[in-house]
Design brief:
The complex is a heterodimer of chains A (296) and B (285). Chain A has helices spanning 20-47, 52-57, 69-115, 121-133, 136-150, 156-163, 167-180, 183-191, 196-207, 209-225, 228-233, 242-252, 258-290. Chain A has 296 residues and is mainly alpha-helical. In chain A, helix 3 crosses helix 6 (156-163) and helix 7 (167-180) packs antiparallel against helix 10 (209-225). The longest helix of chain A has 47 residues, at 69-115. The two termini of chain A are 17 Å apart. The relative contact order of chain A is 0.12. The model of chain A is unreliable at 1-16 and 287-296 (pLDDT under 50). Chain B has 285 residues and is mainly α. Chain B has a two-stranded antiparallel sheet with strand order 1-2. Residues 280-285 of chain B have low confidence and may be disordered. Classes of the chains: A mainly alpha (296), B mainly alpha (285). The interface between A and B is large, with 84 and 90 residues.
Chain lengths: 296, 285
């Protein structure tokens, strides 16, 4: 490429051709949007430092006179023999185990769809895509009827089994495997005498890394956020994930007003793991999706 | 491949088939007062006819369609605008803003609804207090406004996600393209309008389809807001209706019929939308 004629002032570090006025307008628009997106979260953080009386009595966007976050959050954890901690552990189990299994299954399926031509391949892929389009809550009710007929309803498996299937993950893995795993590399590995399973585990999985991070992240968020499936499947509150537990608290809050405060604290705590996960994984995932391994 | 297919069959194909099967049958009770033994018999399309004759079920459908017709374009425009603003050369603090906009996606629907629910309820809400401070008596939970309060929750949650998908699409295009347009003398606005926007098409189609599906299964938000207001009944959305049919009304068969109808409408709407935009794309190409 020929060097572009620069209209910028000499010495400017970045291509700062845009007038300052534009930059201020853009900054203002972005800031307004940020206020909208952050305000509720800010409210949650502030409110978690208040007791029940202050929750109702003081202005929501500012701290009360005696903010005591640790004390009130500890109260959330110890209420009702630590049932909140149990819900939290359940959520971690569902989302963690579910997402890992879903990622591996999607990777294998996507890899197979991308790299092995077989009869009916497009039919299978079409079916999977249709799976993306079926509302998951429309599936949850029949799934419940089916599982209760099989005696699986109201068990850990009832939530875990549906969580390991991610049609979107298969779709993503197929696209990514087609782009990022070069056939020539597979040929080379085959000539070197590696078996298909080893090639997949050693080469395929490694080259598909960034896509796998994406699938894992999305599936984790999906399971963690899923409300309808556990609501339908579970009747034993000991098996509840966090979201479901919190809605039962808020359901009782009319009779037991302290539960409002616990719901607020519990909501804050339940948001934290996803925040951590997203911050840790997002750099992989942003750079990953747009780069292939054979980019010349 | 095989293990995935096994689970896929168990969790997608089997329930679909089972739902269709269940929806075509009904329970007959014999004996005095209908308390005797239960018999499952073939019912044909009776469950569907009943569901379709139910005013509340249909109103629920109408409600989510109206909801989608307003909320999806609004959110898509907002997300596109934010994506283009963030990707423009004049934006600063990009990482911070991107993170801030995406943050709500990490807040589960239930938590988001609880959160906004607190922000809607008079007496607790700082928003209501501010509004009253400037002399505006606002009720987020009245019969007329609650649907749009739910729309706000959904928009709040998913705009950032949509935006990220669009940004990924923008980034997948080599930077030289934008550079070339700029060298040709296009202003930042022209680059956005004539280069970036057309490039976003596939991503916009994808996110819109996801939004359509998401809208039709609207459930958690109204369910959580329900205790706070009398404006939401058990048939507020089709999903809520099917759920209460199954667990309150104890009528599996009709719930299954409603789930099938919901899935059909979702598929029809998504494919219809894809046809619509696909057709237009061909004319242009």
């Amino acid at each position: 490429m020929t060097p572009s004629p620069r209209r910028t002032r000499p010495g400017a570090a970045m291509p700062t051709r845009t007038p300052v006025r534009h930059r201020i307008i853009i900054g203002a628009l972005l800031t307004t949007a940020a206020v909208y997106f952050l305000a509720p979260v800010y409210w949650l953080v502030v409110s978690a430092t208040k007791d029940s009386a202050d929750l109702f009595g003081t202005f929501g966007f500012w701290f009360s006179d005696h903010p005591r976050p640790l004390r009130y959050l500890t109260a959330v954890l110890t209420y009702d023999h630590g049932v909140y901690a149990r819900w939290f552990a359940n959520s971690l189990l569902y989302a963690g185990v579910g997402a890992v299994c879903a990622t591996l299954l999607s990777a294998a399926a996507g890899y197979a769809l991308a790299k092995f031509p077989f009869r009916g391949r497009e039919t299978v892929f079409g079916l999977v895509l249709a799976g993306v389009l079926i509302p998951s809550t429309a599936l949850a009710l029949p799934l419940y009827f089916l599982f209760s007929a099989l005696g699986l309803a109201n068990t850990y498996a009832a939530v875990l089994i549906p969580s390991v299937v991610s049609p979107f993950g298969v779709y993503l893995c197929r696209i990514y495997a087609a782009a990022a795993v070069p056939d020539s590399l597979l040929e080379a590995a085959r000539i070197d005498g590696a078996g298909e399973a080893r090639i997949f585990a050693g080469l395929g999985l490694r080259l598909m890394g960034p896509a796998l991070v994406t699938v894992f992240l999305f599936q984790f968020v999906h399971i963690w956020n899923n409300y309808f499936l556990p609501l339908v499947m579970l009747s034993d509150s000991g098996l509840y994930p966090v979201q479901l537990g919190l809605t039962t608290w808020i359901g009782y809050a009319d009779r037991q007003p302290v539960l409002y405060q616990y719901t607020v604290g519990g909501a804050l705590l339940s948001v934290l793991p996803l925040m951590v996960l997203m911050t840790v994984l997002q750099r992989y995932w942003r750079t990953g999706l747009t780069e292939g391994s054979v980019k010349a | 491949m095989l293990p995935f297919l096994a689970f896929f069959a168990l969790c997608y194909l089997a329930p679909v088939c089972y739902a269709v099967w269940t929806s075509l049958r009904r329970t007959r009770r014999t004996g005095p007062l209908g308390l005797g033994t239960e018999h499952d018999t073939f019912a044909g399309l009776a469950n569907y006819a009943q569901a379709l004759a139910d005013d509340r079920f249909l109103t629920g459908f109408g409600r989510v369609l109206l909801f989608g017709a307003v909320q999806i374009p609004l959110m898509t425009v907002l997300a596109t605008a934010l994506a283009l603003l963030l990707e423009s050369a004049a934006a600063r603090w990009v990482t911070f803003f991107r993170g801030a906009f995406f943050l709500p996606y990490g807040v589960p629907g239930v938590i988001a609804s609880i959160l906004w629910g607190f922000l809607y309820v008079p007496g607790l809400s700082p928003l209501v207090r501010i509004a009253q401070g400037v002399g505006w008596n606002v009720d987020f939970l009245s019969r007329g406004s609650v649907l749009w309060s739910v729309a706000n929750i959904v928009t709040w949650q998913f705009t950032g996600y949509t935006m990220l998908v669009l940004i990924a699409q923008l980034k997948s295009v080599p930077g030289e393209l934008y550079e070339a347009a700029r060298i040709d003398g296009a202003s930042a606005w022209q680059v956005a309008r004539y280069v970036k926007l057309p490039l976003l098409r596939p991503a916009l189609v994808l996110t819109t389809v996801f939004s359509i599906i998401g809208t039709l299964q609207l459930f958690a938000e109204p369910m959580v807001l329900r205790p706070l207001t009398s404006s939401i009944d058990s048939g507020y959305t089709p999903n809520l209706h099917a759920y209460s049919e199954a667990f309150v009304g104890n009528n599996q068969h009709r719930a299954a019929a409603e789930a099938v109808l919901l899935a059909l409408v979702a598929c029809a709407a998504s494919f219809g939308f894809l046809r619509l935009v696909g057709g237009r794309g061909k004319e242009r190409g």
